[in-house]
Amino acid sequence: MAINTQNDSGNSRRKFIQQTTLAGVGLLLAPNLMSAAAHHSDNKPKSSKKENTMNTRKLGTLEVSALGAGCMSISANYGAAADKQQGIATIRTAFEKGITFFDTAEVYGPYTNEQLVGEALLPIRNKVAIATKFGFNIEKGGLNSKPEHIKKVVEESLKRLKTDRIDLLYQHRVDPNVPIEDVAGTVKDLIHQGKVLHFGLSEANVNTIRKAHAVQPVSAIQTEYSFMERSVEKNGVLAVCEELGIGFVPWGPVGMGYLTGKLNAQTTFDQKLDLRTTFDRFSAKNLADNMTIVNLLNNFASKRNATASQIALAWLMAQKPFIVSIPGTRNIPHLTENLEATAISLTQSDLQELEAEFLKIKVSGGRMNAMQMALCE
User: Fold this and answer.
1) Has 78 been annotated as catalytic?
2) Which residue out of 78, 108, 170, 225 is catalytically annotated?
3) What is the C-alpha separation between 231 and 335, in angstroms, rounded?
4) Which of 9, 75, 92, 112 has the smallest number of Cβ neighbours within 10 A?
């Protein structure tokens, strides 16, 4: 499978980081029923609709719905932001349909997505888990995971999210200038203070995960993973999660929209507001070349009265019991389609059939641009 790899030179990576702009980091990605301590008062939801339930999974010790909701695309990076009320309605409908795990980050917008998520979830705060992220220097560009910056970001995120604790706090990208032990120690202090409940890492390598986990148990790793993007199967990240009891949260579980079958070589993206315009995998040529993958999913789905995206999500759930995907949408029908994937149970024979066909295909184009990949370990 053709994928981009980052430059291993530390100097080159730092140069990329220095050149990072807000537009470039916006995509960088992108818990449940865990009740807060008894002193947290429960705000009753305003909706009179009956709340549905969904099977749960564990990210470390954090129990969440089997499928989560990535909220980024409502506010940023996949075109113009959705109407605020539409965004709130989508998030609250997700909860009513069983989702209890919502993912955001300060850099999405920046800031506006956290504000939206905070407002949408306020009436049901104690019934959901919120994940957000730190790690970027939004004002100056580049990365910043210095302890004092982490603490500052957490205080600001708490205000935007209208809450007194963050259920899952990720380091958005590993900062080569700050030892990961210092980052984990800072989050450990925040956990002792009750401002954070669980610790996560995003796009980190195996060595970093082990070092962080030794200081403060890591509950979840977030990295791109989908039927067409398999890097974590090869670089040891998925294996170390299983070894250490860490949950795994795939971002881009339907290929940043590609595996829905709704994109093709004629698809155009907003050059200013959609980061996919800078990703090689979304060039007209690669969109056309990779259609073989979509056709494979569509053909398989047609035999099961499902859609390509539903099979892609069901495939991820079947890989490991500690995987919780966070597909994003601002559209309630699309949300409903995603949720129906939780009712699809793929057999071992199904998985073998899909894998045998996938192995015949070469994926064209890297998953992100060079600047984005330079921020991944």
Assistant:
1) no
2) 108
3) 26
4) 9
